[in-house]
Amino acid sequence: MSLVDRLTTDMKQAMKARDKETLSVIRMIKTSLQNESIKLGKPLPDDEALAVLTRELKQRKDSLQEFKNAGRQDLVDEVTSEIAIVQKYMPEQFSEEKVEAIIDETISEVGAASKADIGKVMKAVMPKVKGRADGGMVNKIVRSKLS
């Protein structure tokens, strides 16, 4: 079942259950997917839909940090529950050990040896972990390995 099909099915269930919060989040995700599809002029394959979903999750995490800094607990609670709903549609995340193994393999593939090669390694690693690992964590690990 594709991501869009899963979202549609879950949206119908949320409507029947009168779960306004889940329904709202799913509608926002579907709107983002639809906008991206219109922009590209074709239906989104699952990997591009995953990129949109990742962007939605990142936006919410950034908002969460801003609300925490501003001391807005009401908004922190709201965004935290939205993040939980969005994460249900994300693929299982890689563990830090798995990401390190992928990075070690990639470093040897590209022949990286110093900090000057961080960009080259990141460019090769990110497609391998797309949607399954946080870019910040990947960057931190790559920097520590090449220091």
From TrEMBL:
<protein>
    <recommendedName>
        <fullName>Aspartyl-tRNA amidotransferase</fullName>
    </recommendedName>
</protein>
<dbReference type="InterPro" id="IPR019004">
    <property type="entry name" value="YqeY/Aim41"/>
</dbReference>
<dbReference type="Pfam" id="PF09424">
    <property type="entry name" value="YqeY"/>
</dbReference>
<dbReference type="InterPro" id="IPR003789">
    <property type="entry name" value="Asn/Gln_tRNA_amidoTrase-B-like"/>
</dbReference>
<dbReference type="InterPro" id="IPR023168">
    <property type="entry name" value="GatB_Yqey_C_2"/>
</dbReference>
<dbReference type="InterPro" id="IPR042184">
    <property type="entry name" value="YqeY/Aim41_N"/>
</dbReference>
<dbReference type="GO" id="GO:0016884">
    <property type="term" value="F:carbon-nitrogen ligase activity, with glutamine as amido-N-donor"/>
</dbReference>
